[in-house]
Amino acid sequence: MSAADNQSGNQSRWSMVGKDPYSIPLDEIDLSHPGIWQANEFLPFLARLRKEAPVHYCRQSAVGPYWSIMKYADIMTVDTSPDIYSSEPTVGIVDTFEEFTLPMFIAMDPPKHDVQRKIVQPVVAPDNLKRMESLIRQRVCTILDELPVGEEFDWVKHVSIELTTQMLATLFDFPFEDRHKLTYWSDVATAIPGGGVVNSQEERWEAVQECLGYFTRLWNERVNSEPGNDLISMLAHGDATRNMPPMEYLGNIILLIVGGNDTTRNSLTGGVLALNETPAEYDKLRNDVSLIPNMVSEIIRWQTPLAYMRRTAKVDTDLGGQQIKAGDKVVMWYASGNRDEEAIEKADDFLIDRPRARQHLSFGFGLHRCMGNRLAEMQLRIVWEEIMLRFQEVEVVGEPQRVYSSFVKGYTHMPVVLHPKA
Amino acid sequence: MVKIHFFEHDGTEHAVEVEPGGSVMLAAVINGVPGIDADCGGACSCATCHVYVDSAWADKVGGTNPTEEAMLSLCGDRKETSRLSCQIAVTEELDGLKVTTPEFQF
């Protein structure tokens, strides 16, 4: 991004914040601005666009012109038509610079996508997860047992981040004492320069290089020892991957760090918040903890930890009566589709016993559907099972602080107080 | 009515009877057969209604279509007679069909 772009971005980034969504001309609504997401004011904008412009064109924004796809059914169409809507060159709303881009299969089309995904998929396959469940539960218990009871602390820092970071360290067999580096690299990978994590693309790239150095060292260690069950060992010994170019290796690592970190972290926080906002649901849960697996799906829908995925039109096409041209950016707003009343009944309500709770868009659909969905669900299920054994209530005692991003829909802080079971 | 026998991976049987016209996935979901999640609701875009067709029925059921093949190929526990049950139409011909659900849906 040039300095001029940054300035215009900063100038307009708050422009929709604090405003009535209906006071802004339809064609000036720009969902790519992180402002309304951080201020938690995005829902009325999504609702207006679903109603008035379900396939909406934003002509001018800090990230250039782009289409917004707002409705569940249209999002399904885009997500399941990789021949029309490509995942290359990137799935982020900001165009990337080639020299700062890592090859990742999330941003590849078939056939290359399929080949690369199949290589790393076994590490998060359900049968592998089953083997890890007891270790995960043990780590969850340790974290929960060490929390202060009856006094305020930050749930994001002490539970959500800690748990997901430990999980990643487990998957990679990453040195446990250095595990917080994983959180940092994950934050850096999705950071907008100037948004608080890094100040420039160059600074971001430096962190990526540090990450590469670290993981190269781990690769070299693993390649010289017996094959193990961790991801790095699997890649270092796998026939199809042992000669993987370094940047491709790093691309896969970063993808797993981001995919497995921010997302679950923010669903862990979002679930506590949702239950606090709907006490009747919290009561339902206390009365029947067998609702936890269904609740987990509902939390993932309600939170929608990644607000969107981007595609790029490969050909001229028509969607919802709009003419999309080859090369246009097309943004599927999962956060909107998950609130679409035409697809999901009482879509704005958080209902832990919702029928067909698994039918949500948060994991995407089609070939790029989230590879770690079962891992995420398992982690959340274990955490809630263990929370309910210990605490009558995890009480939110202050306004949560949200991430400055229109992509990662999450929280930086959320103060809570734990009330033990009587 | 068409009778379909679903077997869980541990052998537990669930026999259901449905009118022809819907999909095998729908027959399972409507009758509460466990082991079929069908997250995408039948759009052939998630692979969570994966079944193994009994080999005696494989010819009658037929092979995968290209979209289904693409989704199934990403499943780690894919076998020769694997199908996505949302892509198998229930017809009179399939009366007595036997399918087994995998231990896990991806």
Structural account:
The complex is a heterodimer of chains A (422) and B (106). Chain A is an alpha+beta fold. Chain A has a single domain (3-420), classed as Cytochrome P450 (Cytochrome p450). Helices cover 47% and strands 11% of the residues of chain A. Chain A contains 15 helices and twelve strands. Chain A has helices spanning 3-13, 34-38, 42-52, 72-79, 112-120, 126-145, 155-172, 180-190, 201-223, 231-237, 246-277, 279-287, 292-303, 334-337, 373-390, and strands at residues 55-58, 66-69, 85-86, 153-154, 308-313, 317-319, 322-324, 329-333, 391-396, 401-402, 411-413, 415-420. In chain A, strands 1-2-8-5-3 form a five-stranded mixed beta sheet. A three-stranded antiparallel beta sheet of chain A has the order 4-12-9. In chain A, strands 6-7 form a two-stranded antiparallel ribbon. Chain B has 106 residues and is α+β, with helices and mostly antiparallel strands. Chain B has a single domain, classed as Ubiquitin-like (UB roll), CATH 3.10.20. In chain B, 17% of the residues lie in helices and 22% in strands. Chain B contains three helices and five strands, in the order E-E-H-E-H-H-E-E. Chain B has helices at 24-30, 58-61, 66-72; strands at 2-7, 13-18, 50-53, 82-84, 97-100. In chain B, strands 2-1-5-3-4 form a five-stranded mixed beta sheet. In chain B, strand 1 (2-7) and strand 2 form a beta hairpin. The model of chain B has no long low-confidence stretch (mean pLDDT 95). The chains are: A alpha+beta (422), B alpha+beta (106). At the A-B interface, helix 5 and helix 6 of A face helix 3 of B.
What is shown here, in short?
Chain A has about 425 residues and is α+β, with helices and mostly antiparallel strands.
